[in-house]
Amino acid sequence: MGGVWTGVRERVLALRSAPNRKAVFGAEFHGHGHGFDLLPVLTEEQVAAVERHRGVTFPPEYRGFLLEVGAGGAGPDYGLFPVRPVGPDTPPAPPHLARPFRPERTRQLAAHQDTEPLRDAYGDTPEEEARFRRDYHIWDRREDELLATLAEGTLCVSEQGCGYYTLLALTGPERGTMWHDARAAAEGALPVEFVGRPGRVTFAAWYLHWLNRAERQATRPPETTRATPWPTEGRRHASAEDGPPAPSA
Predict the structure, then answer these.
(1) Which of 2, 135, 149, 189 has a CA between 20 and 30 Å from the CA of residue 168?
(2) Contact 238, 246 (CB under 8 A)
C-alpha cells in the first residue's frame, strides 16, 4: 500500500532483539508488557466489518495502521488495545463511539467544579444539612454526566497507567486527533501535544514519535540508558526531542 506506514511493522518487530529494549517504558513490566509484539494486520473486509459493527468509520491513519502494521500490540505507554475481527460472539458495540466528540465539555466540567457546594456555606440546622446533601447530590450527578460524555465520539487506544488513557477522536471537527483521557483526575479530555511543537497531533504522528524514541532508547548500550517511564504528571516538562506527548490545559 505504501505511505506513512511503509516499513513500520518491520521496525517495531526488530526492536524485540534490541540490546536495551527493556529501557522502553511499557515493553516489559513485571513479566508483562507489549514486548514489541504486534497482532496480525486486519483485511479490508475485517476492518469494514468492525466499522459497521461500531457504527463509525475509522480515521484514515488509524485505518491504515490496522491494515498495514497490526491490530494492536506494541505502541506508546503500555501498547495499543487490540481490535478484534467481528464474529458471532462479538458483544454489541458501545453506543458512545458514533456520538459527536465535544472536548468543550472539559471547560464546562471545570466551570461546574467551581460551583461545588461547600458544607461551610450552610447552616448547622437539620434543615440546612438536608439542603446541603440535596444540593451536593444534584451537583455530583451533573459532574458524573459531564465526565461520562467526555469520551463520546472517541476510541480508547492505549493505557498510560494510573487510570489515564489515550483517546482517538472519531467524530466531529477534531476527528483523527489524539487526546489524553484525564478523567481519573477529573481534568477531562486534554489534547495531546508535543512539547515545543504547537498544534494537534494525529494518530500517525503520535505513533511514529513513540517509535523513533523507542528505537533510540532500545538500541543504546544498556550502560548508557536507564528505564525512563512516561509519568502522566511529568508530561508537561518533557523535552521536545525526547519527551512524550504532553497534555495541553
Answers:
(1) 2
(2) yes
Beta bridge partners of 179: 167, 191
Identify the three-state secondary structure at position 196: coil
Strands 164-169 and 189-193: unpaired
* Tens digit of each residue's pLDDT (9 = 90 or more) over 188-229: 899 999 988 889 999 999 999 999 999 999 998 776 555 444
CA dihedral (30, 36, 42, 47) positive or negative: positive
End-to-end CA separation in angstroms for the chain: 38
In 3D space, the residue among 165, 130, 248 whose CA is nearest the CA of residue 199 turns out to be 248
Count the residues in the chain. 249
**What is the spatial distance between Cα 245 and Cα 211, in angstroms, rounded to a whole number?**
13
Task: Supply the pTM of this predicted model.
Answer: 0.82
